[in-house]
Amino acid sequence: MIDVAGFEDDSITNGPGLRFVLFVQGCPHHCKGCHNPETWAFGEGCKYSVEEIHTRIRRNPLLRGVTFSGGEPFSQAAELTRLGRLVKADGYELAVYTGFTFEELYAASSPAVHELLEQTDVLVDGRFELLKRNLLLRFRGSSNQRVLDVPASLRAGTAVEMPFGRWRTEGR
Known about the structure:
Oligomer: single chain
Largest sheet: 7 strands, mixed
Strand content: 15-25%
Order of helices and strands: EEEHEHEHHEEH
């Protein structure tokens, strides 16, 4: 079961194109100025099965991508990996917002964290920093956060930034 804070069934602000956004419940970061502080507490969301969420995603034939946000998605990496595999098999692009950096995730000892990274196309990484807040940035809140090409990053063993022109917007 996934501990869920909420859903956006048709978002245009959490990545390019029309996207389904899953906001998970629970976050260890507690960033000052976070726009989702109600997602910090663990165990206070609604529980949904991977299959229930997958069915909800598939209801909208106009979706081009799926975004996991939070809370902290990597705190529920095992279940989100299962969902990630299903949405990838359906042809959706998968983006994940995380307060961890790619380097922290890459060095993690958890197999589930690595499995979720392997399912991810685009990672928006890094904790939100209020002093670096910039409303002009696309798809991120503070200038320290990066938009990363995860397959390229995994091949290189280091973070590879995603040129915005390459973050796909075409259909699945």
